[in-house]
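Standup notes, protein team

Yesterday: finished cleaning the Photobacterium iliopiscarium set.
Today: Radical SAM core domain-containing protein structure.
Blockers: none.

Input for Radical SAM core domain-containing protein:
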Amino acid sequence: MPFRFSNFKSDYLISNDFGEWMVISRKNLEDLINKKLDTTSIFYRELKLNNFILGNSGSFGLENLASKLKTKKEFILDFSKLHIFCMTLRCNHSCIYCQVSRKSENSCTNKYDMSNEVLSKSIDIMLQMPSPSVTMEFQGGESLLAIEKVKKAVLLTNEKNEKIGKSITFVICTNMVGITVQTLEFFKEHNIQISTSLDGPEFLHNFNRNTSGGDSYIKVMKSFRLAKEILGNNCLSALMTTTRESLKYPKEIVDEYIKNGLTTIFIRELKWHS
Ligand code: SF4
């Protein structure tokens, strides 16, 4: 079967369209390419298991693989279902792992918030997707700093969708600092899900997630309480970004989630960070 290969340390990484991969020696790679495999060897069996060769399974094996590939690529039929709207690049935090080009809270809104024109066109594109259901996710920066624009986006989407009739899930990613009763009531009215961040107990959360006052945790807890009052106990899902510092406190992190009535932890690992 077709496969790709590249150097991997002193060996070779081979991979195929079925999502399988193996690290093999140069000798094994040459044997595979030159079709000089020992059919009784473990290597031969592993290649077969990982769909690098069909062996003697003939057309039945091929049909199997075709169906596997079709399942893997099924998402293409629905095209893009998740649409991320970065409403602003401004943020009131400066987390040590921030990967966006964040700007300070008071930066120019004209420059760093999404314009009405871009917003309207982006909604049109989202609603043109073939999928009957889409997710509109607001991200930043900090979405709450552009809350009026978020509200506008939700109302405009619902209006444009009236004739189209897609099922739309709204999600807002926010650090929740400074959230107000009015905003939470808007979320309730429009069934907007909240995805937030809690990196662990106070000392760790504040270490990872800096604010000018160094008090992110206290502000977040205040917002958690308010959100639970208005939206109910299960209104939040939180993710925990794992830094080197976090690795020292696994038990404390889990305890913090339990303390706050969160039943799941979405663990976001960092692939880079010094
Ligand atoms: S809250 Fe998000 S956007 Fe703001 S600094 Fe932290 S990671 Fe970056």
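Follow-up from PR in the comments: Residues 91, 93-95, 98, 100, 102, 140-142, 175, 209 surround iron/sulfur cluster (CB under 6 Å).
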